[in-house]
Amino acid sequence: MRLRYKFRLYPTAGQRKALARAFGCARVVYNDALRARESARSAGRPYVSDAELSRRVITQAKKTPERAWLGEVSAVVLQQALADLNAAYRNFFASITGRRKGPKIAPPRFRSRKDTRQAVRFTRNARFTITAGGKLRLPKIGDVPVRWSRSLPSEPSSVTVIKDSAGRYFASFVVDATDGPPPPATAEVGIDLGLRHFAVLSDGRRITNPRFLRRAERRLRRAQRNLCRKQPGSNNRAKARIRVAKAHARVADARRDWAHKLSTRIIRENQAVYVEDLAVSGLARTRLAKSVHDAGWSAFVAMLEYKAARHGRTFARIGRFEPTSQVCSTCGRRDGPKPLHVRAWTCPACGVRHDRDVNAARNILAAGRAERQNACGGLVRPPHQVARPDEAGSHRGAAQAARHGLNPRLSDRGARQR
Asked: What residues contact residue 408 under an 8 Å CB cut-off, 6+ apart?
């Protein structure tokens, strides 16, 4: 499995200028290529191929006075910018033709030098290396100091240098991770995600919602108010913008670190994990939008999914229309929808009193087990079968035959013979 390992970079002043030059050259090549294809489309000419595009915006452009400075950066950076544009076009075409599932993908757009996030990618052809002193050697940039938090499991195939909105630099390595056998586990768990408690497990455990954004709102509000008082275009406003970006980055880093630790613990303790497929994009358009975004459900579920595949665990999403809060997890009786203020209820059939969230987590676990494949490759829950023609509907004379204790099919056949 291919994974990304991300580390903090601390480039010098000269290296920051070289990286800014690489960011700008990659952005110009991307925009020139996009403009060439847009011009060909509006003029009715054929689609510009990848090879022709590379020859036009890189090879020939370097020979012109207007683009001669493209030779000051590594050629791999420029080729990877074209690769990003080609990937964006492929995703767009696959989306409009229906081959790509999910929400529709917009066509590629031009990159701006005012974007707060900039990135360039170096592949093995660029011959980047990690020196004996632990620095990252990049072509035409130099040896950049790296803050190593852990060792790489294998030789990286590429590295992406990223500058975020807070002015921080990161190196993202793509490596092939080959983990050893995970610790044995036989437990299975269903997870019900919420806002009062971030997660409620089917075994009764409750994970408190940390609410990182809510706890940092006072500091964020003060930094944003300070930014609004600065004059647009001034150096003080640029410094205040960096302070706001750093405050938001601190919140995002804390949320991501917490989600990684929680998802790792759940995957290590359980052999199978089942969660509910929530419509986060729809919930984000309600009055609970800030709390939904602060919870970070989608990122947490994505971590569970890839970590389960990495460690050989079973992971499944339960349909969002499954009535997990309406069904008694003990007897299976469906008691109908309940308002959100009802946190506990008693089943009228079996008399068991349920906690709303724990009951939903147990129903998620039961639904996940039912949809899992058995040893023969079929579903544990048999699918619905179409009724045969002789089973569907009622026969003529069924009511009269039932009153006389006769078989309706035989009585009907006798009526037809008469």
From this structure: 394, 395, 396, 397, 398, 401, 402
CA distance 79 to 141: 17
- The CA distances from residue 102 to 91, 96, 98, 175, 309, in Å, are 11, 11, 9, 27, 21
Torsion of CA 34, 35, 39, 45, to 10 degrees: -40
Closest CA relative to residue 141, chosen from 80, 77, 67: 77
* Cα–Cα distance for residue pair 153/176, rounded to 1 Å: 7
Residue type, 113: R
Over residues 343-372, the pLDDT tens digits come to 898 888 888 899 899 999 999 999 998 876
Complete DSSP assignment for 7-48: EEE---HHHHHHHHHHHHHHHHHHHHHHHHHHHHHHTTPPPP
CA end-to-end span of the chain: 73
Q: Which residue has the tokens 């050893």?
A: 180
Number of CB atoms found within 10 A of residue 318's CB: 23
What are the catalytic residues? Answer: 192, 276, 357
Give the separation between CA 32 and CA 163, rounded to whole angstroms.
Answer: 22
DSSP state of 135: -
| Amino acid sitting at position 196 | R
The contacts of residue 250 (CB under 8 Å, 6+ apart) are 216
* pLDDT 10s digits, 70-119: 999 999 999 999 999 999 999 999 999 999 988 889 999 999 998 989 99
The Cα 228–Cα 226 span in angstroms is 6
Instruction: Please report, for the chain, how many H helices and E strands are present, in that order.
Output: 12, 15
The structure tokens listed for 249 are 């980055």
Q: Do 76 and 83 meet the contact criterion of CB atoms below 8 Å apart? A: no
Match 């013979």 to its residue by tokens.
417
